[in-house]
Design brief:
The complex is a heterodimer.
Chain A (H helix, E strand, L loop, with lengths): L1 H28 L4 H6 L5 H11 L5 H13 L13 H36 L4 H15 L2 H15 L15 H35 L2 H8 L4 H26 L1 H11 L5 H11 L2 H29 L7
Chain B lengths: L3 H9 L9 E2 L11 E6 L14 H10 L1 E2 L1 E3 L5 E3 L2 E5 L5 E6 L13 H13 L12 E8 L2 E6 L6 H4 L6 E2 L2 H7 L15 E7 L3 E6 L13 E6 L3 H10 L4 E2 L7 H5 L4 E7 L5 E4 L9 H10 L2 H7 L6 E2 L23 H7 L4 E6 L3 H16 L3 E6 L2 H9 L5 E2 L14 H4 L13 H12 L3 H18 L2 E3 L1 E2 L1 E7 L2 E2 L2 E2 L11 E2 L1
Parallel strand pairs in B: 2-13, 18-19, 18-20
Antiparallel strand pairs in B: 1-25, 3-10, 4-5, 6-7, 7-9, 8-9, 11-12, 12-13, 14-23, 15-23, 16-20, 16-21, 17-22, 24-26
Helix pairs in contact in B: 8-10, 14-15
Classes of the chains: A mainly alpha, B alpha+beta.
Chain lengths: ~325, ~500
């Protein structure tokens, strides 16, 4: 098991290396000059040249890349071009808000998906099944920013049930914190809920037709036990895969949702940094997002072993 | 919305319809206490004047730091940390400093501090103030309250420059103590009415009253909180819900509604910037002066004022606005759109106009497009992401580019950088030896009448040559709840809070 995890971690290195090249080239080849954004109305050729020199932007691109790579190998992600904050601090300050949003969105998606998916599978072809399937199609097809705007319009502006955007730290006021997180979490989690529901439904249908389920029923095991212990646990394996990918994609989804809800997380930091051409911060965030995927994939594989003892990594 | 200076000038574009400066007398006797929350149109990047380049940063600075000089609402230079001055020798400016002023960290403000601050602005590697202070060769400490600024060449604009960030004085002890994080947390660094408490980026910035402020009785408020709200509609919503007390910018379409609502006070005064679009004289089609003039003739500025700015502001003909002593009220060669005259000058050509996705900029582009079409000129609109657009305009990769200017206190700041052959903002590649000579002379002359004549001459030539098509002059506005009193309106868009109180 430990060997397996170590092997997987080592295998991440080449992937991470390719990611660094990709992110560095993409942001640096995008038109726009951070010096011009920084200087605004104070621009002059001397000031622009001075900033290029300070940031090393006057060096050839591959040299800039190697310098950056050398630093991140030593754990130094550099400082933000716009605020001079260390990149790790800038991301670290925003990460709790994003993780909270992602966690609540995930809980929301599972709370909706697993019960609905199970019911739909058990009562295949019924009204409940059709309704759940219809909701799923809607949830997947409507973009999360639109869900966000609709939620803001009805629940925040019209009915005034929830605040419009913003964030209150949990340790400052837990109740307000929850009030603020609910709408963005619903907006962010709905697409995932729809997908998870579809997976739960189809996987449950498949499992319920397996011989061991029939055996369990034939032995006289209570129906509830058969559904929840025998069937559901096994049916969740594909769901775990897809949830794992969703965890890895929290930052990606948060980019849009956090902007709509002015949520001070990593997603909004990414958007601001791209507009400001804050190369170091963008690079840091994309690396973080890539690693989230890699780690989430590893965790998914480990959870398989727990859900299905036949899968072993010895 | 980086480059906020530009963006704000674009949005606030508005009119001489309010009271022209002066203090609001509403609400009776000032009383101390309470706090006020102010909206900023974008997040700040730094709290150090040394590397600041955003208008929103200057706004916070004016309430935290004191400058060597200040302005009154008519833009006249008035005493700040410099109590009196003698500029009879244009190469050696003698300043007498206020005595007994202390920074918020308890260290004394004195002549040595002035010298150290100017030295820091001139030499620090991250300083953005070097070009502001380019004419200064050294600062001599005479005694505790007297300094002499030795200049390389006469500089008529220097006192106005020292009103702004280059003249803001900071406690060197606080700067050193702050180290690398100084620009994020300048604790005790200023001598201004309010001092730094905390800055939670993307949420709020809090200042508290400086209890030992050197101007007796001020400030009235216990504290000021700034919140960055980058959307004008959200600013209006926050004003209405009471989340903020004061704003500088709302969408022009909403001004009438706010004016008629008795729970708010709206004031404005002509601002110091200009608005319009630059034409690239270095490349076809606008290397041909006739085509530039045809565009300038075909634009109906009154339609722009009415449809885009909801008549808040005045039409603009040149670079120097009505708030300035160098304003030319006779400059009206493009007063009304004249499609026939435009057609006679040049017609049947096509050009591309670059702008950003901001809704107001988009409406403006559509209006300009239809007005030019009437004169047989085809304008294609190219909407670009902000950083790309800035780079292409700065690198002369455009035919027409929609760039506004937030304005400077001295007319030099609205002309030299833009249309001197060697100007830093001369995106249009405009070059006219006579204009260069006038602008250079105005920089070094100490006689204001002579300077004014230089600017009048330069303006006439620039407007006639049309490297830039001026559309409207905006306003500097303040929108507040009716509980906020004691405001003084300044044309430079800055909201100064020392004398403001809550009733």
């Amino acid at each position: 098991m430990t060997t397996y995890v170590l092997r997987r971690l080592v295998l991440m290195v080449p992937v991470a290396f390719l990611v660094t090249i990709g992110v560095f080239m993409l942001i640096h080849l995008t038109p726009g000059d951070p010096a011009l954004i920084l200087l605004g109305e104070d621009r002059s050729p001397q000031a622009i040249a001075a900033i290029h020199q300070q940031l090393g932007l006057d060096k050839p691109l591959y040299v800039q890349y190697l310098i950056w790579l050398g630093h991140i190998v030593h754990g130094d992600f550099g400082r933000s071009i716009t605020t001079h904050q260390p990149v790790t601090t800038a991301i670290g300050e925003r990460l709790p808000a994003t993780l909270e949003l992602g966690a609540v969105a995930l809980i929301w998606s599972l709370l909706v998906a697993i019960p609905l998916g199970t019911i739909a599978a058990l009562r295949r072809g019924s009204l409940a099944d059709h309704l759940a399937t219809g909701l799923a199609v809607g949830g997947v097809s409507i973009p999360n920013f639109f869900i966000g705007i609709v939620l803001i319009f009805f629940l925040s502006v019209t009915l005034r049930l929830f605040p419009f955007g913003g964030y209150v730290p949990f340790n400052q006021d837990p109740f307000e914190n929850l009030r603020h997180v609910i709408l963005p979490a619903i907006a962010l989690g709905t697409a995932g809920a729809a997908i998870n529901m579809r997976f739960t439904r189809s996987s449950m249908i498949e499992v319920l037709n397996q011989d061991y389920i029939r055996t369990a029923r034939a032995k006289g095991a209570p129906w509830r036990r058969v559904v929840f212990i025998h069937a559901l646990k096994n049916a969740l394996i594909p769901v775990v895969t897809i949830v794992g990918l969703q965890i890895g994609g929290i930052i990606e989804g948060a980019v849009v949702t956090e902007t709509v809800f002015t949520w001070p997380g990593v997603g909004r930091l990414a958007v601001e940094s791209i507009f400001n051409r804050d190369y170091t911060v963008v690079q840091g965030i994309v690396l973080l997002a890539a690693f989230s995927y890699l780690i989430a994939n590893l965790l998914v594989d480990l959870v398989y072993g727990w859900l299905d003892p036949r899968i072993s990594y010895a | 919305m980086r480059w906020v200076a530009v963006a704000v000038a674009g949005l606030v574009l508005v009119a001489a319809c309010g009271p022209s400066g002066g203090t609001s007398q509403s609400g009776g006797t000032p009383k101390a206490g309470g706090t006020a929350t102010i909206a900023l149109e974008s997040e700040l990047r730094t709290l150090d004047p040394l590397d600041s380049s955003l208008l929103v940063e200057r706004e916070v600075f004016y309430n935290m730091y004191d400058s060597l000089f200040t302005i009154d609402p008519s833009l006249k230079i008035t005493p700040g940390l410099v109590k009196s001055w003698d500029v009879s020798d244009p190469l050696n400016l003698k300043f007498t400093l206020q005595s007994g002023v202390k920074y918020q960290d308890g260290t004394a403000f004195n002549a040595q501090s002035v010298k150290d601050n100017i030295q820091r602005y001139l030499t620090a590697s991250t300083s953005r103030r070097k070009s502001d202070l380019a004419s200064v060769s050294s600062v001599e400490v005479v005694d505790d309250t007297h300094v002499i600024f030795h200049l390389k060449k006469p500089d008529a604009t220097l006192l106005a420059t020292l009103v702004d960030r280059a003249g803001m004085m900071l406690s060197m002890a606080a700067v050193q103590k702050g180290g690398q994080n100084f620009s994020l947390a300048p604790v005790g660094a200023g001598s201004g009415p309010f001092e730094f408490v905390e800055w939670q980026r993307n949420d709020h910035l809090t200042l508290k009253k400086n209890p030992s402020y050197w101007k007796p009785g001020l400030p009235y408020l216990d504290g000021v909180t700034y919140r960055a709200i980058p959307d004008v509609n959200a600013i209006l919503a926050a004003l209405k819900t009471g989340d903020i007390d004061i704003a500088r910018t709302i969408a022009p379409k909403d001004v009438a509604g706010i004016k008629s609502d008795s729970s708010f006070i709206y004031r404005d005064t002509p601002a110091i910037g200009f608005n319009g679009f630059e034409l690239n004289t270095g490349a076809p089609p606008f290397s041909d002066p006739a085509k530039r003039q045809a565009v300038a003739l075909a634009i109906d500025r009154y339609e722009v004022l009415k449809n885009i700015n909801f008549n808040i502001g005045v039409v603009g003909y040149g670079p120097i606005p009505p708030s300035s002593w160098a304003f030319d009220s006779t400059e009206k060669i493009y007063d009304h759109a004249d499609a026939a005259k435009a057609k006679a000058t040049a017609t049947g050509f096509t050009f591309t106009y670059k702008t950003t996705s901001d809704p107001i900029n988009q409406q403006l582009a559509a209006l300009l497009q239809s007005e030019l079409a009437a004169a047989g000129i085809t304008m294609n609109i190219q909407t670009e992401e902000f950083a790309t657009y800035v780079q292409e305009c700065a690198n002369h990769q455009f035919q027409a580019c929609n760039v506004n200017w937030s304005g400077r206190l001295d007319p030099d700041g609205n002309t030299y950088a833009w249309w001197h052959t060697k100007g830093d903002f001369n995106d249009s590649l405009y070059s006219n030896a006579q204009v260069d000579a006038w602008l250079e002379d105005a920089r070094v002359s100490t006689d204001q009448n002579k300077r004014k004549q230089d600017y009048l001459n330069a303006q006439k030539q620039i407007v006639a040559d049309a490297p830039y098509v001026f559309t409207v002059f905006g306003v500097s506005a303040q929108i507040s709840s009716n509980k906020i009193h004691g405001f003084t309106l300044y044309p430079d868009l800055m909201i100064r809070m020392a004398a403001v109180w809550k009733g």
